[in-house]
Structures are given as C-alpha cells and as structure tokens.
Amino acid sequence: MINLDKIQHVAVLGAAGKMGSGILYLNTLYLSQLALKPENCNRTFTIYAIDQSHERLQALMLYIKSLLQKWAEKNIIALRALFAERDDLIENREVIQAFIEAALALIVPSTRLESAYDATLIFEAVIENIEVKTALFSKIKENNPLNPWFLSNTSSIPIDELNKKARLDGNIIGCHFYNPPAVQKLIEVIELKDGNKQLSEYVYQFGKELGKIMVPANDIAGFIGNGFFMRDLLFGIEKLKQFKNKFSFSESVLLVDTLTRDFMLRPMGIFQLMDYVGIDVCSFILKVMNNYLSENLHSELLISLMEKHVKGGQNADGSQKPGFFTYQKGRIETVYNFDKSMYEPIEQLLPKVQEYLGGLPENQSWRSISRNKEKSELLSGFFRKMTQSNTAGCQLGMEYMRQMKTIGKNLVTQGVTNSDEHVNTVMITGFHHLYGPINEYC
Fold first, then answer.
1. 153 HSE (CA, 13 A, CB side)
2. Hey, what domains does the chain have and what are their CATH numbers?
3. CB-based burial of residue 295 (10 Å sphere; 0-12 exposed, 13-18 middle, 19+ buried)?
4. Those residues with Cβ within 8 angstroms of residue 375's Cβ, 6 or more apart along the chain or in another chain
5. CA 351, CA 330: separation in Å to the nearest integer?
6. Is there a contact between 170 and 150 (Cβ–Cβ < 8 Å)?
7. Are 121 and 148 contacting, i.e. CB atoms less than 8 angstroms apart?
8. CB-CB contact of 255 with 357 (8 Å)
9. pLDDT digits over 110-120, tens only?
10. Residue 438's Cα: distance from chain center in Å?
11. What would the pLDDT profile of 33-50 be if each residue is shown by its tens digit?
12. Nearest by Cα to 434 from 389, 368, 384, 385
C-alpha cells in the first residue's frame, strides 16, 4: 500500500519541455483521480510545474488542458463514477468540465526551483547532463526538509552515479518515459540494488494505474532502449561508410535508410530515426555511454555533422528540423550530402538506390503489417522469402538483422537486462518495431 503522504506534493522539473510536459500530464491524471476519491477529500494534492520561462509555462497549461479534455471524453463512464456524489452534474459536458477544472487546480506553475522544496516526490525531466541533474538534486536535497523521493527520466546516465553525486541515500529511481510520454506505453524502470523499495512499489503502481508497460532494466549506461539504439545507429553508420566506395554520401544515407526501413519492416529507417531523436542528442548519449562502458561507442560523423549545424530534432510545433534529411509534411524531401555540404532532392537519388537494392520479397510495409491481425504469419512469410532471395537488398537486410540479434543478445550477456523478452518488449513497445531483434527470422 502506497503512503499517500509521500506522493501528495509532486514537483516536475523541466515541466514545459518535450518530455516534462507529458510527465506533468500523467501526474495530473494520476493525482486528480486520487484527489477526487471520497476517502481523500481531506487531503491536499499539489503538482509544481517548474520550468525557466513564464511564457512556456502558460503554453504548457493550455497543452495539459487539451490532453485532459481528450482523456475525459474517452473516459466519461469512469468520471461519472468519480463524481457520483455530485447531483449538480447532469450532462457529460458538465462532468468533463468539472474534472478538467479540478485537475488543473492541482498544478502550480513556477519558474523557481524553490517550489520543489515543498514537494515529497520529484520527477526530473531536464537536459541529459549529469552535472545539471546532480546540481538540481543536490540543491533540493539540501533545502527540502521532507526527504523527498527522486525519479529521473534519464535515458543513459547510471542511476547510481546520480545517487552518489547528489547524495540521495538511495531515494532515487530511473523512470525512463518514451517520447511522447502521454502516448507511449513504455516505461523503463532502473532500480538501485539497495534502493528505496517503497519508491519502486510506487513507480510500478503509478505505471499500472496509467496503463503503462513497465520493463525493468539494470543500472548500466544506456539501459535497454538506448543500449540497443546506439549500437544500431553505429552499425548503420559503418554500413554507410562501406557503401561510400560505390555511392555518394547522400546515396549511401538513402540506401541504408531504405534498407533499415523497407527491408526490415520498421516505421523509420535508422537515419530518419536519428533525425527524429536529434543528431546532437544521439551524439551526447554516445558520449555518456562511452564514459561508463569499456567498448568504443563513438561516431566522428555525428560530431562532424553538428559542426556543420546539421542536428535534426523537432521544432516547437512538432515539425522536423533538417538532419540527414529535410522533410515536407513528414515526408523525406532531400538528403544531405556531407561532401558537398548541401541537400540533394530524393528523386535524383532513388533510381540508383532502388536498382542496387532490388525489389522487396513481398509488397508489404510496416504500416500494412502493423494493422493486420495475421501479423506473425505475414512476418514469417516476408523474412522467409528474404532468406531465399539473392537481391542485394534482401541479403543486406538479413545481414543487418543478424547483427541486430547479436546486439540484443549482448545486452543480456552484458547484464543490461535479465531476459531476451525485455529487449524485445522495449523495441516493440518503445520503438514500435513489429518484432523484437531476438527472433527466429534470421
């Protein structure tokens, strides 16, 4: 049973950011339903939304309101049960409005870190920088008399490092949400070996109540998701280098991206995925992991791209910034040529790439199979035909899949996770792959 005294007053650091806003919404959803239960009528629940800009916090409140509206419209039956004692609420719209008002009333926007000194639970979603994170944690620890629990959304930094540097006495857990947290089902949970067990129980209950899929990972830099993704992208970059003997840089990028999307039935090719995450973010995660692991996880290409101000990532409105590709309404429009420092139209590059790769073994795509109830059979048939084909695309696709299986298996061997199933769950749920890398297809 969770001690409500410990979770009544929550602070979200970086609340107006891409990850923080979703984490704030989930906390608002969770606490508002607790607050509306009759047995909690005498309790006060508070969520401090902390960020650096008043303007961003104002926009944040509108965003949270819109998400609450959508959730309430889909869950009106559950809301009517929560408001069962309110005889004045007749129409559904009245119930929805009452819920939104009650939920938003919990949030206290603030640009002052001092607000976290009154919180018992700290969700952290700031920049992936150990110095920044530990400075914030240390300051809160020193000035907060309530001995708060800390939940870090770090995607790569070992939790024990944060615990030691900020002297948190084991009251911290890794709670890695996937982007966007309001929608993505996956949360990677990274517990300390001698960490606070009550905190762990709370995290799993929190996730269960919100319908999340919780996957435990061991406290090794990068954890499961980035542990796999970073090695995946490094392998893609190595293939790019190999193809540069026959193709231009831009053709090589398009070739590997097409291979990893179409021939491996993924939602995005590896370079488009790097653009989505951010080339700068990928490079920084590699640097973090490289600091803690014995293998060489490093890419000069990503560093050189950043020097040319090719960084990827998203604009405030969700549109994609230029990276390996430029985009028009979500579609790839041009491909970056590193050697010429310019973007080239995809139409000029596709014919040569398609001729080299050859056709797919079947007319299937990630989208068509993801919507089909016979997904397992379709995947088996697709990859069986790939193994029987002599085209460059099919042979390279199977080579790439074998490497992905090796990467997945190594995560288990290296102790990042305790099971093949956890690797597959993270890649299927967090990255929306149709199948896990540890499979029998290759």
1. 25
2. 4-217 (3.40.50.720), 225-430 (1.10.1040)
3. exposed
4. 369, 434
5. 21
6. no
7. yes
8. yes
9. 999 999 999 99
10. 21
11. 999 999 998 999 999 999
12. 368
